[in-house]
Design brief:
It is built from seven helices and 33 strands. It is an alpha+beta fold and about 475 residues long. It folds into four domains: about 70 residues, SH3 type barrels, CATH 2.30.30; about 80 residues, SH3 type barrels; about 100 residues; about 170 residues, no CATH class. The strands form seven sheets. It has an eight-stranded antiparallel sheet with strand order 23-24-25-26-28-29-30-33. A six-stranded antiparallel sheet has the order 11-10-9-6-12-13, with no helix packed on it. It starts with a helix and ends with a helix.
């Protein structure tokens, strides 16, 4: 009897333990969780779960959705863990706003930061087009030229960090799975628009304008950087080279730098009127500066052409011929043609050869250097039909003109660099009909005229001697 009583007691205890074990098995859990980013159709992002177990080897949780018997195995990073149910429910309520929100990047190597701060340590580098899950958003801030938000985000391999939305497209999906962009912003770029809408000329155009010395052989409408946004072409044309490329798109790669995809061209916009252009040509890296002119280039060219016509007209109005006892007679025509008679002295002084001929055309496309330009009216070049040329710094007075021969060695890039020569060749010419000037001229003018006449007589005497 005693043995039977002991057996019954043992069976009773086993039954109790079995029931307790069964009850504890139904409710056993290690914590609570909220699903941050579900990869399973039956499990919603944002769902509150019981976390039943954790696999250290597989790095996963076994979770059960509250109020159901549905269990799922999820990577640890897809679930936010809480020890208390109330904390999980509080987070889920906050997360509800962001539960359907995702984003993708529009720029390669976009950094994710440890904190919502541009100077914070980078924890991840996003690929262009990479999809991420939005967890939260901060207040609007301004970083450089951008206004936007720092988003707390989760990558598809479990990294959490912060990303500024300048290069993020944040979106949700509606019932039809259509994307609704949440951070629509003004994508216009006034700086780039100004670049496309401006005419860009080589920087030395401005140098010519500043000096008042426009070389019409270089100051041409076809020299510059030309853009056709619709056709997608960029054309660079200078005296040294001509390059044309077709671009697919224009990408901003810095605060003021742009890359023309499909070409070697990169543009740095230094200011509204000044840019630097980097490109490759025949295997060489080249950098050139361009400026935007406010004035119309054709009008500037017309003004310079008119100025040169005025220089010729000064000789026509006082001549159209001028004579020197030592250097012969020059006859000018309105067309710019000239005839130079009895110029044997130029031949003996090796300015010209015997085969130079007597006629040709004059031009005014060479300039005196700034430090000497106040001493002269301009530089006149005689282009003989034979191909020979002779350049002169000159000054006009009422009685005539003085010409100082300039050897080619003193001309660099169409600029006369000096008027101090070891053996200067100075010529004095007089205009006809001096009596047309009134007898009451001011003494300075009479002095200039007398000086020219005296110099001409002295020059002739020297030649005859």
């Amino acid at each position: 009897m005693q043995k039977q009583g002991s057996l019954k007691k043992t069976l009773f205890m086993i039954s109790i333990l079995t029931i307790l074990f069964s009850l504890s098995g139904c409710n056993r859990r290690i914590g609570h969780g909220v699903v941050l980013w579900s990869d399973q159709e039956e499990l919603s992002t944002g769902a509150i779960t019981d976390i039943l177990s954790e696999s250290k080897i597989r790095k996963t949780y076994i979770v059960q959705v509250k109020g159901t018997k549905d269990r799922f195995e999820l990577p640890l990073w897809r679930v936010k863990f809480f020890e208390k149910s109330a904390a999980a429910e509080e987070f889920a309520a906050t997360f509800e706003e962001w539960q359907p929100i995702y984003a993708f990047t529009t720029k390669a190597s976009l950094p994710m930061r440890e904190r919502a701060d541009a100077s914070s340590e980078r924890v991840y580098k996003l690929r262009e087009g990479q999809e991420i899950k939005v967890l939260n958003r901060g207040d609007m801030v301004e970083i450089g030229r951008f206004k936007g938000y720092w988003y707390e985000v989760l990558t598809g391999d479990g990294t959490i960090g912060y990303c500024f939305d300048a290069y993020l497209t944040v979106y949700s999906l509606n019932d039809k799975q259509e994307m609704i962009v949440q951070n629509e912003k003004d994508t216009s770029d006034p700086q780039l628009d100004n670049f496309f809408n401006s005419e860009w000329r080589p920087e030395w155009f401005q140098d010519m304008l500043s000096r008042g010395q426009i070389d019409l052989k270089l100051f041409r409408p076809d020299y510059g950087l030309f853009l056709d946004k619709e056709a997608g072409t960029i054309t660079l044309n200078t005296p040294e080279r001509a390059v044309q490329s077709t671009f697919d798109s224009v990408t901003r790669i810095g605060a003021n730098r742009y890359d023309f995809a499909g070409t070697s061209f990169r543009i740095t916009i230094n200011s509204e009127n000044f840019i630097s252009v980097q490109y490759k040509h025949e295997g060489l890296e080249i950098s050139e500066a361009f400026i935007s002119l406010k004035a119309d280039i054709n009008e500037l060219i017309a003004n310079e052409s008119e100025r040169r016509e005025g220089l010729l007209a000064a000789f026509m109005n006082r001549g159209p011929e001028m004579s020197s006892q030592a250097y012969g007679t020059i006859l000018f025509e309105n067309s710019g043609r000239f005839t130079w008679i009895d110029k044997s002295s130029l031949i003996s002084q090796q300015i010209l050869t015997v085969s130079s001929g007597n006629s040709g055309r004059v031009s005014f496309d060479i300039f005196p250097q700034t430090r000497i330009e106040s001493h002269y009216d301009a530089v006149m070049t005689f282009h003989f039909d034979s191909g020979e040329t002779a350049d002169f710094l000159y000054s006009i007075r009422d009685a005539g003109a003085s010409l100082l021969y300039v050897h080619p060695r003193y001309i660099e890039k169409r600029i006369v660099t000096s008027d101090q020569f070891f053996d200067p060749i100075q010529m004095y010419f007089t205009f006809p009909d001096k009596s047309q000037f009134s007898e009451g001229k001011e003494s300075d003018s009479e002095s200039d005229d007398a000086e020219i006449l005296a110099a001409d007589a002295e020059e002739s005497a020297v030649r005859e001697g």
